[in-house]
Amino acid sequence: MTGDFAFDGLRERAETLGQSLPPLLAEAEMLASTIMMGEHGRRRAGQGDEFWQYRPTHVGDSVRMIDWRRSARSDATYVREREWQAAQSVTLWVDPAKSMAFSGAKGRVTKADRARLLAMALAVLLLRGGERVGLAGEGVPPRPGRGQMLRLLAGLTEDGEDYGTPDAGGIASHGRAVFLSDFMGDLAGVETALARASDRGARGVLCHVLDPAEEEFPFDGRTIFESMGGTVRHETLRASDLRARYLARLAERKARLTDLARSVGWHYHCHHTGGPAQPALLFLYRALEGGR
Questions:
Q1: Mean pLDDT for each consecutive 10-residue tract of the chain (292 residues)?
Q2: In 67-95, which positions are buried (b, 16+ CB within 10 angstroms) versus exposed (e)?
Q3: Residue that terminates a domain, selected from 82, 98, 133
Q4: What dihedral do alpha carbons 102, 103, 109, 115 form, nearest 10°?
Q5: What is the dihedral of CA 206, 122, 153, 163, to 10 degrees?
Q6: Helix, strand, or coil here: 94?
Q7: pTM listed for this prediction
Q8: Phi-psi category of 290—alpha, beta or left, where left has phi over 0 and alpha has psi -120 to 50?
Q9: How many CB atoms lie within 10 A of CB 133?
Q10: Contact assessment for residue 176 and residue 88, using Cβ atoms and an 8 Å cutoff
Q11: Domain count, the chain
Q12: Residues 6+ away with beta carbon under 8 Å from 205
């Protein structure tokens, strides 16, 4: 009774977040279904059942590890390695800041909507594969099983800040992590979070979610630029004069994010809300699998 009561309470809390969440889960499962699953290992040596490869023996290998049948066919001795298939922990951080609520066109999803969809669809894939998935911070630690989906939904909150700072809290030692954000805030916060994750031996992905308007800067004439929270405001009579400088700054930011990710062994991927979500999901999934 206690487990059922807790699960029902969790479902109730998830539903109170709004009518968008149940459709979000359904959409995430549909998106995840487009990614071919099949049998897969981690393609790393360790404890598992599937044969991976033979390799020459190294100093420190025990005699029990040697495959004598394979070694008999050559002058060297070989070890039979198997794939590492143990479940690992994946921690997701979805930027809850107000800047993520932006959409540059009527009918186009917001950055927040797309980031949440990608996070939930990735969680569906990972949980189906037996992984443990959680959210950054202390609220939703990585756990396995379908029941974790409701905990993840309930943990996707919004805060009052204009721009978000990645949270590296809760990332498991030698686990995996994904930060989904527009990264419009101070990049010092990104650097700090990556350093903290790297100190724990974690690898992952920076998923840069942008609206096409932020990528193209299609503004001309008199324009008022204002942050979603209203804390930053700028008016110009000739917006087109700002285009070249804006695009240069955006290119610099992308390059900086790429360098930060590469410096700690992470991946960087830029995704536009004007396009389909599937390519970004496939990138994230393969990056966590070590396939990129």
A1: 51 51 84 66 48 66 78 82 62 95 91 97 93 91 92 87 92 94 95 95 96 81 63 66 82 97 97 96 89 42
A2: eeeebeeeeebbbbbbbbbeebbbbbbbb
A3: 82
A4: -40
A5: 10
A6: strand
A7: 0.76
A8: left
A9: 30
A10: yes
A11: 2
A12: 177, 178, 179, 261, 266, 267, 268, 269, 283, 284, 287, 288
Q: How far apart are CA 159 and CA 189, in angstroms?
A: 17
Within this chain, do residues 35 and 128 fall inside the same structural domain, yes or no? Answer: yes
DSSP state of 202: -
CB 138 within 8 A of CB 170: yes
Residues 101 and 179 in one domain: yes
Tokens of 85: 């298939």
List of E strands, 123-202: 132-135, 176-181
For 242, the token pair is: 């700002």
Closest CA to 140 of 120, 156, 125, 119: 156
